[in-house]
Amino acid sequence: MKVKINLICIFLVLSLLQFFASELYAARPLSTDDIAMNPPETFSTELGYEFLQLNSNIQINSLVASLASGFTDSIDFHLIVPFELDPNTGFANALVGLKFRLVEENNTTPAFATTL
Predict the structure, then answer these.
(1) Do residues 68 and 77 lie in contact, with contact meaning Cβ atoms separated by under 8 Å?
(2) Is residue 107 part of a domain?
(3) Blockwise average pLDDT, block size 10, the chain, 116 residues
(4) In a 10 Å sphere around its CB, with 0-12 CB exposed, 13-18 middle and 19+ buried, how is residue 37 labelled?
């Protein structure tokens, strides 16, 4: 129980630091899933809380941290790390990927991206 409380405190401190250091946006899904790309050599971070109710007996509570970096104007690297609080405590499966913007938005077509 003490580990869970310490992790929640760390998460809250990181959230407050991010709040005062930058603009915040409420976005679900994460912006790493959006079409927007980070400019080259820049980073973005996201912190979130996830609650899943799979059925009447199974609930999953997780803290989610995300880091994204732009390689080029059309390629992003991202790392998403969930930390489960309940029913298990500990790191869950992390996601490492690349996002590619294949088509730029213009007057007649929307932008199109895919993730690997």
Answers:
(1) yes
(2) yes
(3) 75 74 53 76 85 79 88 89 83 88 87 82
(4) buried
The domain of 56 spans 25-115
Number of domains in the chain: 1
Neighbouring-strand partners of residue 70:
40, 76
Q: What pLDDT is stored for residue 14 in this prediction?
A: 78
- In whole angstroms, what is the distance from residue 86 CA to residue 36 CA? 32
Question: Is the distance from CB of 49 to CB of 43 less than 8 angstroms?
Answer: no
DSSP per-residue letters across 15-84: HHHHHHHS-----SS-GGGSS--PPBT-EEEEEEEEEEE-SSS-EEEEEEEEEEEEEETTEEEEEEEEEE
Size of the chain in residues: 116
Three-state DSSP at 10 gives helix
The helix (H) or strand (E) run that includes residue 11 is helix 2-21
Q: How far apart are CA 95 and CA 64, in angstroms?
A: 11
